[in-house]
Every structure is written in structure tokens, then in C-alpha cells.
Amino acid sequence: MEDLDKNIDIKINQISQKLKEIRLSKGYTSYETFAFENDLNRVQYWRIESGKNITLKTLIKVLDIHKISLGEFFKNL
Questions:
Q1: Cα distance between residue 55 and residue 63, in whole Å
Q2: Residue range 9-54, pLDDT digits in tens
Q3: Which helix (H) or strand (E) holds 10?
Q4: C-alpha to C-alpha distance for 67 and 39, rounded to whole angstroms
Q5: Local confidence band at 6 (pLDDT 50, 70, 90 cut-offs)
Q6: SS3 22
Q7: Alpha carbon distance 75, 44 (integer Å)
Q8: Between the CA atoms of 42, 54, 59 and 51, what dihedral angle is there, to the nearest 10 degrees?
Q9: Where does the HTH cro/C1-type domain lie (predicted)?
């Protein structure tokens, strides 16, 4: 069970890092600015990029903001 939990944590971290990379590639050096300009809760978005808390609903919303499909996002993960 510990191996499964560790694997899940690794995947969550990969998702969080990829979201951060996408934000940075779009020119948003601050997660706060990105959250504010896209009507996202600043603290919630910080948690997402930190791998602390992410829901599917929020992931889909962020990907919609970036105009990226789920398939594109998960293609290389």
C-alpha cells in the first residue's frame, strides 16, 4: 500500500509541475497574478501547483483557461 501511495504522490507532483510549467510558458511569472486574472482562488491555486490539493473540476477549469485538452495534458505524463 505504501508503494501505491508513493506512486500517487509522484503523479500528483508531475501534474502540479506541468501546470506550473504551462503557466510560466504563458508569461505568468506569478501564480498569484495568474489566479487573479483567471478568477481562481489564489490560495487554492497555490495548493494545486504545490501538489497539496487538486480536484478534477479545478484541473479541467485550469486546462480550459490554457485551451489544453485533457488528452494533450496527459499525453507525456
A1: 12
A2: 999 999 999 999 999 999 999 999 999 999 999 999 999 999 998 8
A3: helix 2-25
A4: 16
A5: very high
A6: helix
A7: 25
A8: 80
A9: 19-73
Cβ atoms within 10 Å, residue 25: 9
Residue 69 CA, chain-centre distance (Å), reads 13
The type of residue at 68 is: I
- Cα-Cα end-to-end distance for the chain: 22
Strand extents, DSSP E, the chain: none
Grid coordinates given for 25: 510558458
CATH for 2-74, among 1.10.10.10, 1.10.260.40, 3.40.190.150, 1.20.1250.20?
Answer: 1.10.260.40
Q: Which three cell numbers stand for residue 53?
A: 490539493
